[in-house]
Structure formats: C-alpha cells, structure tokens
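Input sequence (472 aa), recorded before submission:
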Amino acid sequence: MQWKTIWRSLKSRDMQKRLLIVLGILVAYRFLAHVPVPLAEPKQLQEVISTILNNSNFGGFLNLLSGGALASVSIMLVGLSPYITASIVMQLLTKAIPRMEELHKDGESGRRKINQWTRMLTLPLAIVQSIAFIFILRQQQLAANSTVDITSNATPLQWILMVGALTAGAMLLMWLGELITEQGIGNGMSLLIFAGIISQLPSTVQLVANSIFNVSTDADKLHLFNWILPVNAFIVWLMLALAAAGLIVLYIMVKINEAQRIITVNYAKRVQGNRAYGGVQSILPVKLITAGVVPVIFAVAFLQIPNFVGQFMAASGDAGQKQIGQLLITWFQSPQFASLAAPTLTTFIYPVAYFMLIVVFTFFYTNIVFNSAEIAENLQKQNGFIANVRPGIQTEKHLGQMVNRLTLFGAFALGIIATLPFITEYILAQFNIPAQNLAIGGTGLLIAVSVTLETLRQINSRALMVTYDQDY
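Predicted structure, token format:
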C-alpha cells in the first residue's frame, strides 16, 4: 500500500469529493438505522426484541448485519438482504440462460441492463421479506410470552404502512449503496455492511467478554485447572489467549486475502510500416480468493431461507407443517453450545452447512468474476500468450485448471476461518465456559477485514490516478 501517494491524493478535489460522499452516505445510513418502523408500542417492542436477540445467535447475527436495525426495529430492518438475494438469482440466470450470458459479455451496456433487472427484482423480494420479518417478529414475541402483538387488530392501511416502510428502507439502502459505488470509492453494498458491523462490534465484543466472565466457580470441569491457577485468573488468561488467537487469525486472513499467483504474459513482436510493436512482457495476477468476502455474505443470506420457511410453517395450524417448521428452525439456527447439555449431530448442521456454502459460493462467484474463456480470447486478440501454452483453447484450459486449484485451497481456507469461532465456542463449552455470540463476532470481523482490504486497494488505485499528472 502506497500511503505517501494516498496522502498526496487527498489534495485532489476529486478525491476529497469522493471520500466526503462515502462518509456522508455512511453517516446518513447510521441515522436511518435508528428511525423506527411506525408500529404500536415501539418501546415495549424494542425491549422484547432485545430479550430475543440475547437468547438467539441467529437473531444476533441478523442484528449485526443490519447494523442494529433489528434491535431498534428500524426501517432499515430488512437491510440489503433483498438486493443480495436478487443478485444471486440474476447471477444464476446469467449462467443458465444463454441470452443473458451474451448480455453480460456485451460490455457496459449489457451489464447495465442486468443491473437494472436486479433492481427491479429487488422490489418484490423486499416486499416479501418485509412481510416475512413482521410475521417472524410476531412469532418470536408470542414465543417470549410478550403482551405486545404488532399484528393484532391491524387494519389494511396499517399493514401497508408497515410493509411500505420496510420496503422503502430496503430500496433506499440499495440506492445509497449504488451511489457509493458510482460517486464514491469502493463497493457500496460492502461498505454499508461494513459500517453496520463496525457499529455493532463493540457491543458484540462486550457480550462475548461478559459471557466468558460469567462462569460459575463451582463448575466441575473448571476444577481441573485449580491446581494450575484459580478460576478467575484462568478466565483472565483465557481472554488474553482468545485475543491473541484472534490477532493470529486476522494476520492469516490478511495474508490469504492478499495472496496471488503471478502469470507472465508475453506479447509477440509485430511490425507495421516502419514501427515495431509488442515484444514486451506483462503480468496477470490471479488472487487465491478471487471472490473476496462475497461467499461469506451469500452463505449467511442463503442460510436465512430455511429459518424463514420454518417460522412460517411453525405458525401454521397443520400439525405436520408445524413439526417440519420446528425442525428447520432447530437445524438452521446458529448453535449455542454453552446452553446444550449434550450436543447432537443436528447441532452441527448449521456450521457444516455454513462451511459447505462458503466453498460452493467461492467457486460459483470466482467463475463469474474470472472468465477464463474471455481472458484467453482477449490475450489472443492482443497477440499475447503464456510461456509454453498455446493461445486459444489451451490457454483457456490452463487458466481454468490453475484458477480451480487456487480456488479449492482458498475456499477451504476461507471456510475454516469462518467456522473457527464455532469450533472455539464448542471447545469452551466442554469446560462449562459460555461464549455466546463468539461466532457472530468472528464472522462479522471476517467480513469487516475483507471489506477494509478491498476498499484500501481501491483507494490506492484511485490515488495513483489522481496523482499521475503530478508525478509525470
């Protein structure tokens, strides 16, 4: 990272304007995250939701991604989930429908059409997810024996007002994200998720620390450590060990995120008139994790679907559907190992599914971002070739095989890092040491680090552009 260049670029009006746009939109987003949905008894409802979030890792993670909008029952409660879902659907259709694949290859105009269709698909998804969130909040309130019912005696106009507010919040958030991408620096959607996570990380760390410090000194398994250290001293050293392990994982994550394979591309020399062109070399960098943090976000969004479906089925009057719904809620909810007497195989369904989805989405998104056929075709048109590899089909196969090998290692490394908090939480639970929300904080920190690195890289690129005239 060229920090001197970045510092000099801050004198540029264009750089100042872009950074101020990003900062202003993030401040506006954090303000909107505290604007409540027009519901009855908002204060009582927030107290009920806070109680639910403290007892649910899944709800806690949704609250983390929404930047606290779930806890404050804000108009931003639905967040970017509809847009993420629409992006997944459109990317799947791009691979499945030849016409859309041609549009994607058609350059900027084709991608602009696909982006427009993604925005259009986001609207109905936002409406459906807004209704789903209202029903899920109601089910959670009834399960908590709360006297507050947000849907009781609600008129059609009140329903339209509630759903309209949540849908408008989701669409406004999508617009703010695209505004950052176009007018600011970095990926707008990722930066909004990053801002939400950063705003909630202090409280998440505090919850993790409190849960670890609230250990019973009479726990039988902790007495194993009495001959080494008193229990209180052991807990302090445990906190320091977890902090050190977190720093080590962050270091490994940064190294894996920055790791890349350099391919040397040679350009054939050609003569036109009295001038010679080509005969030079360039590099083609291929990252170990080309997809970045997108697979983690996709995996979390995808794992919400079974839980949503389970909530609806559990609310139905049919006994069979209710039983299936309860199973889906149990299987696809982030496990709380500390509250389980004896973990069963179903306890590990969520972490295993999380790991597998990260691996699958890493391969899926890498195939979208890194198109071997398109790169091989462009190299051939520019008279470029890789040493000992023939241009055309052979180059495409070579690039495809190399990217698949890199992605295989990168996907498993990303999956292991993302599931490490679950493993740590399970190990601590064996010694009666509760560590609730450890998985939430770990995944949030993983997303935050990846987005930070990518944003710094884009700031560095922009700084090189605006300081080019000063240097040359």
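Checked by second reader. The domain at 1-206 is CATH 1.10.3370.10 (Preprotein translocase SecY subunit).
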